[in-house]
């Protein structure tokens, strides 16, 4: 008998596989179970990775289009959908098989199958090969992620109705596409199809795109999307859809109750995600879920059942791959007996549209809601040499600070590459940096990262490229 901890992880997304790998590194006996052939989860198979591969192609298409402003003309691009799909699938295969190989190196016992609890420490695993196995463990981590949310009344049986998974399979380049939902997934996929030549419209129930993101950041994106997209309908909702000869006829109601009908070649329903606890047998454990179905955990990722932990999308917002991985690592450290907790000061969020939007830490809306005293300092990208060389001065770097000690509370960016730049902001917040730290840190020139340093300089009325004397 070994005295090693026997751990099972259900679900091999970025939360589950990160947890399983660390557990193996810490000397545990690890079994990782997933329905798919390899680890990867939603993120690698039908989320972050395929969407970013396609957004990369969209970026190239947009840049070749814009190159005409700089004296270079490429002509109309010819999109070979089969080849593009093949390339995107290769990206997914390469990464998922790569993670599968890393699991083998670490001697993680990967089982392809569906797991469900028979009691707190026993799982019945229905394997892909048709066999069934009952296995007992010391501890179990649930990392089963989330599923696509639907609206039953709009769930018509039509190949022209896409969700995020089928949209990523690139069934066609629709002449017109209606995206229902102005969240990040809808806007990212809408941007992909727009770049491929579809006329894209968006309908959003609320009064702005990307609810939850800072309006100063969203305003730049909205402006560009209004130019690129056919129509953006805010304060509006789809009340009826039916398949007609060449598309889907959609009835849209605005906030005054007025309705309009339009036919779209394809419709993408992208209204959010819900917990994936179906068939898990949670009723055989002491695990509790909240009203919305997310598993309840404390800051050590412990559920109400002492032998069961939960991480990632299944425990709720923010539903992001890097949050899932970090929680996975915390759960494993707690199981290993370390004094660990999930207490980040900042979880970065990135919207990979063009321009990108990224933020970390406190947002201005949150500061207002929580009545936190703050000051804002901003650097407009129009004053950034690097942004101008890219012909992309439509961005901003915005920092929220504590007025007492100028400690950085939150950072938001809008502009190309914002998703890469935000990592510096996360580090600054986590390390308790203040604006003087940022101002005194020499940033390379000419880069967009200088906008972070100069935003700090603006606060003191000393930005080299912005004349904004400090108010007394
Ligand atoms: C289109 C799209 C784009 C996205 N882009 C980004 C992005 O750019 N950045 C970002 O951070 N996040 C992004 N996300 C979100 C990200 O994919 C999720 O936050 C992340 O995958 C959550 O990881 P997880 O480990 O919690 O679970 P998941 O990745 O959802 O994995 C859960 C796994 O559990 C398996 N499973 C479920 N039930 C069982 C069971 N009973 N037995 C065995 N296996 C089971 C599933 O098959 C799945 O493989 C995107 C999502 C989508 C849909």
Notes on the protein architecture:
By secondary structure, this protein is an alpha/beta fold. The chain is built from 13 helices and 22 strands. Strands 5-4-3-2-1-6-17 form a seven-stranded mixed beta sheet. β9, α6 and β10 (199-203) form a beta-alpha-beta unit. The chain is globular. The N and C termini lie far apart (72 Å). 44% of the residues are buried. The chain binds flavin-adenine dinucleotide.
Helical percent range?
Answer: 25-40%
Total count of helical runs of at least 4 residues? 13
Mean pLDDT: 96
**Gyration radius from CA atoms, angstroms:** 24 Å
Alpha-carbon distance between the two ends: 72 Å
What ligand species are in this complex? Answer: flavin-adenine dinucleotide
Provide the structure class.
alpha/beta
Give the overall shape. Answer: globular
Describe the strand arrangement of the main beta sheet, using strand numbers. 5-4-3-2-1-6-17
Main attributes?
five-stranded parallel β-sheet, binds flavin-adenine dinucleotide, alpha/beta, 472 residues, 22 strands
